[in-house]
From TrEMBL:
It is a multi-pass membrane protein. GO terms for biological process: transmembrane transport. Belongs to the binding-protein-dependent transport system permease family. CysTW subfamily. Residues 57-263 form the ABC transmembrane type-1 domain. It is found in: Cell membrane. This is Putative spermidine/putrescine transport system permease protein. The chain crosses the membrane at residues 56-82, 94-115, 144-165, 186-207, 242-263. GO terms for cellular component: plasma membrane. Its main location: membrane. The keyword Transmembrane helix applies. It comes from Rhizobium rhizoryzae.
Length: 275
């Protein structure tokens, strides 16, 4: 009897924690948006009837997707190089790749303030080289937010992909090459499908991290490049509009789930065993 119930007893504490700290808060947030006095869809209609809020949502999706694509490309290249290095050098490179993760998001974002400011390192270097006549504004732009978030999430992508790429049997790659496949064909038909599970996990982590980030868009984007995380904070802590904040949170959850489902379907189409 005890043996039969032991899996449930072992999973019980973790399940209870998930229920208390995830399911219940998310459910309460969604419930709060559906009990508005003006109607159960009134908060959502108010959100989508506002051009400012639609712009914030579309900007957040755009920045998150661009960040994800760039992080996947850069992370894949770096992980591929690291995976084919000899043992000790590989360990050193992995430590170097994840070293930025040892510092806080705010610290790393402040580093970009120093780099991209009008009197920052990049403008000073361009002025000293004579490439520009006067400093130009790089902060509070979409490019600044994307650059900082790519820097934040590429190490995560490398960590996810390095093990997957390392696990691809070299015999399979060599067999494809010996049968006459060109390097690009080997990459597209052998390496990429086999790396798809790592790509899915990494892309989902990067997208959700970008879509819900607060500190980096706030510091480098300001009001001009406001994203959903910043907007959510304003509704909850500045205007104390808890229903509006719950609506923003609910929309973020739905968009994140939708993007994850689309990524999974795309990956399954490329490799049916990937998901």
């Amino acid at each position: 009897m005890v043996k039969r119930l032991s899996p449930w007893l072992l999973a019980g504490p973790a399940t209870l924690l998930v229920l208390i700290f995830l399911i219940f808060p998310v459910g309460s947030t969604l419930f709060a948006t559906l009990t508005d006095a003006k109607g159960w869809l009134a908060p959502y209609m108010a959100f989508f009837n506002s051009s400012l809020r639609r712009t914030v949502l579309m900007r957040t999706i755009e920045i998150s997707l661009i960040t994800t694509v760039i992080s996947v490309v850069l992370g894949f290249i770096a992980a591929y190089v690291v995976a084919h290095m000899p043992g000790r050098l590989k360990s050193i490179m992995i430590i170097a790749a994840v070293f930025p993760l040892l510092t806080g998001v705010v610290v790393r974002s402040f580093a970009w303030l120093i780099l991209l400011g009008k009197n920052g390192i990049l403008n000073s270097a361009l002025l000293s080289l004579g490439l520009i006549a006067e400093p130009f504004s790089m902060l509070y732009t979409k490019g600044a937010v994307i650059a900082a978030m790519v820097y934040l999430f590429v190490p995560l992508m490398i960590l996810t992909l390095a093990g997957v790429l390392e696990g691809i049997p070299r015999d399979v790659v060599e067999a494809a090459s010996s049968l006459g496949a060109k390097p690009f064909a080997v990459f597209r038909q052998v390496i990429l499908p086999l790396a798809m599970p790592g790509l899915i996990i990494g892309a989902v982590l990067v997208f959700t991290g970008s879509f819900t980030s607060y500190a980096t868009p706030q510091l480098l984007g300001g009001e001009r490049q406001m994203m959903m995380g910043t907007f959510l904070y304003q509704r909850a802590m500045v205007t104390f509009d808890w229903t509006g904040a719950s609506t923003v949170a609910a929309i973020m959850v739905v968009v994140t789930i939708a993007i994850v489902v689309l990524m999974t379907r795309l990956a399954r189409r490329m490799n049916p065993m990937a998901a």
